[in-house]
Write a structure and sequence with these properties.
The complex is a heterodimer of chains A (593) and B (84). With 593 residues, chain A is mainly α. Chain A is built from 24 helices and four strands. In chain A, a hairpin with a 5-residue loop joins strand 2 and strand 3. The longest helix of chain A has 51 residues, at 161-211. In chain B, strands 1-2 form a two-stranded antiparallel ribbon. Chain B is elongated, with a radius of gyration of 18 Å. The chains are: A mainly alpha (593), B mainly alpha (84). Chains A and B meet through helix 6, helix 11, helix 12 and helix 14 of A and helix 1, strand 2 and helix 3 of B.
Chain lengths: 593, 84
């Protein structure tokens, strides 16, 4: 007994990480071999007989990416109230999915989202526009995931980032290519369990430490455990204003921008192809509704804990470093300093860390902070990366080694599950929508399955390439993938279901105008390619940031669609019959070509 | 007859959807964003109420809304004979 405890204590973070990551990877590969796909139906929609619970778990894992797991709590801890745009935006979309999209698309019973667009709008042009939108959305999103895999490897296992990306590629390649949607579904079920456990264990530990309340969601509204009788949030508000930051519970974005970003993220969520296809895998329409509810419940567990983690981490961070001598900082501070996630420069040479508002450092030509170039006009001496809050939280709170290792396994589960879901959308868009439906309708079942696997291989390679050589705009565009989805698919699908008169001319024009205006706004105000320098916030239309512009682009799409529709002929009778048919839940049968 | 049935079913469905979406809008955009400042005057334990709706409450309500819809629709499916 004592021996085993000693062994456990002497393992260290590194070995624990190897063990936990090794076990989880072996599990994913085992599941992939057990559930390999033998038909296109199994490859695209897992055979169509997935239970609502399994689908809910898979959807939750598919949905929660490296960004949700690693970055979100960190972003909230720096943004305070404004972080609510992500919390509400990335959950509220499920209400739209369950009430407005999932049941009808399930009844329609096809394999992909461009499939719906192509059939409902009786046009291969519409299908092609759908494919382009699906590829654009999915590729911007997947590159970030592969990068996330590489980051976790490099930070926890001291593997080179690029090697980390390649290991991640091989694992995803193995189970996505072999198992298709069927393999992905059941690995995602396992990945959900890993990631939620990995997120909640440190959250619960820290909540008990700080407030004595084991439920983090309640803990951050409780009094401090030190017996002072002060509420944690009041204390953090005080600390923030003392150091010159905005009050934590107030935030600093304008109301209209908060509104627009939240709506763009919600609508974008409901329009993301890799989320929508998950609902094609269940048996009946009522299962589609139910599994949307289960998925959101499972997502909510992490999403309601994240703002609590943000508050704990922020308070801990300020108390540990603010006005403390640099020589006595804890070990984790030095460790993350070497990875470039923390930067410190003693501007006033007092040997202490002044952590105040404002950027401590000037940016280099790549737009990254240069820790050798302190900004002399700002008193703040410290840079802290968003991602550190979740990755370093267990170390900051001095939790056991196995908990720290668990966070690495959880981050990998989150990144891999989302990457796999996106890769499937990409491969299905190519093999099913482009090859089978447009280029070679006579392709055999076996030929299509081979094409699907080959396009999955191709997609993994492209994603891996972007993971290793990230173009500067990838990080910026991941959040904008939602804007693109909101501007293109959401209006076309909603009108396709709820407006029988909507025709192909209207839908195609709407999608093209929507996605083009989103792209242009993004290029002008986020990437700054049109001007010498990135235009200032004051130039934004109606004060809406590029992240929130999806809302405007979506409205444009609706207006253009309806206006064009008024001047063009109604859809043929058989299409109108299809619309009537998808409104009735019974007789959904199974997904077909 | 079946066509009439389908129309009535669709009408009731739309009614449910609209009611639930109004609630969806009120908790998130209403309580969490537009009326946040006013609600922040009220404090429940350590939480300012507007802040709580934005970072906690709206998400709980979203989950409840979906399960209410699931229940309502399962009943509606039975009523119109579309259950399976």
């Amino acid at each position: 007994m004592t021996n085993s405890i000693m062994l456990v204590e002497s393992l260290g973070v590194q070995n624990w990480t190897y063990i936990l990551v090794g076990i989880t990877f072996a599990l994913y590969i085992g599941i992939a071999i057990w559930s390999r796909a033998s038909s296109t139906k199994e490859f695209y929609v897992a055979g169509g007989g997935v239970s609502p619970l399994a689908n809910g778990m898979a959807t939750a894992a598919d949905w929660m990416s490296a960004a949700s797991f690693i970055s979100m709590a960190g972003i909230i801890s720096f943004a305070g109230y404004d972080g609510a745009v992500y919390l509400m935006g990335w959950t509220g979309g499920y209400v739209l999915l369950a009430l407005l999209l999932a049941p009808y698309l399930r009844k329609f019973g096809k394999f992909t989202v461009p499939d719906f667009i192509g059939d409902r709008y009786y046009s291969n042009t519409a299908r092609f526009v759908g494919v382009i939108c699906a590829l654009l959305v999915s590729f911007t999103y997947v590159a970030g995931q592969m990068r996330g895999v590489g980051l976790v490897f490099s930070r926890f296992l001291e593997v080179d980032i690029n090697k980390g990306v390649i290991i991640g590629m091989l694992i995803v390649l193995f189970y996505a290519v072999l198992g298709g949607m069927k393999g992905i579904t059941y690995t995602q079920v396992a990945q959900y369990c890993v990631l939620i456990f990995a997120f909640m264990v440190p959250a619960i530990f820290i909540s008990i430490q700080m407030t004595g309340n084991p439920v983090p969601q309640l803990g951050f509204g409780s009094e401090l455990a030190d017996g002072s009788g002060t509420y944690l949030l009041d204390k953090l508000d005080g600390l923030s204003t003392d150091l010159g930051f905005a009050e934590y519970t107030e935030g600093s974005k304008s109301l209209i921008d908060v509104f627009a970003i939240t709506l763009a993220l919600m609508v974008g969520t409901a329009g993301l192809p890799h989320v929508i296809v998950r609902f094609f895998t269940v048996k009946r329409v009522k299962d589609a509704r139910k599994s949307a509810g289960i998925a959101l419940f499972l997502i909510m567990i992490l999403y309601t804990a994240a703002p609590a983690v943000a508050v704990f981490a922020r308070t801990n961070m300020i108390e540990t470093v603010s006005n403390q001598p640099y020589t006595s900082v804890p070990e984790w501070f030095k460790k993350w300093e070497t990875t470039g996630l923390i930067g410190f420069y003693d501007k006033n040479s007092d040997g202490k860390i002044q952590y105040l508002s404002g950027n401590a450092f000037l940016k280099d030509e790549h737009g990254k902070f240069d820790f050798k170039k302190p900004d002399p006009n700002v008193k703040n001496e410290l840079y802290v990366d968003n991602d550190i809050m979740v990755l370093a939280n267990p170390e900051i709170a001095d939790l056991p080694d196995w908990v720290i290792a668990l966070v690495a396994a959880g981050g990998l589960a989150a990144a891999l599950s989302t990457a796999a879901g996106l890769l499937l959308v990409i491969s299905a868009s190519v093999s099913h929508d482009l090859i089978k439906k447009m280029m070679n309708p006579n392709i055999s079942e076996k030929g299509e399955l081979i094409a699907a696997r080959l396009s999955a291989v191709g997609a993994v390679c492209v994603a891996g390439y972007f993971g290793i050589n990230p173009p500067g705009f990838v990080a910026a565009t991941v959040a904008l993938a939602f804007g693109l989805a909101a501007a293109s698919f959401f209006p076309a699908i909603i009108l396709g279901i709820f407006y029988k008169r909507m025709n192909k001319e209207g839908a195609i024009a709407g999608m093209v105008v929507g996605i083009t205006s989103m792209l242009l706004y993004m290029i002008k105000y986020k990437l700054g390619w049109f001007d010498e320098v990135l235009p200032d916030k004051s130039d934004w239309w109606f004060g809406i940031s590029p992240e929130g512009f999806g809302t405007i682009a979506m409205i444009l799409n609706f207006i253009v669609s309806i206006a064009i529709m008024k001047f063009t002929p109604p859809p043929p009778q058989e299409v109108q019959d299809i619309v009537e048919n998808i409104r009735i839940p019974s007789g959904a049968g199974s997904a077909t070509h | 007859m079946t066509k009439k049935n389908a129309k009535a079913y669709w009408k009731e469905n739309i009614k449910y959807v609209l009611i639930l979406l109004v609630i969806w809008f009120l908790v998130s955009y209403g309580a969490g964003i537009i009326f946040k400042e006013a609600l922040n005057e009220i404090k429940v334990a350590g939480f300012k109420l507007g802040f709580w709706f934005a970072q906690q409450g709206s998400m709980y309500v979203f989950v409840i809304l979906i399960f209410v819809y699931v229940r309502l629709m399962n009943k509606l499916d039975k009523k119109y004979g579309y259950d399976e």
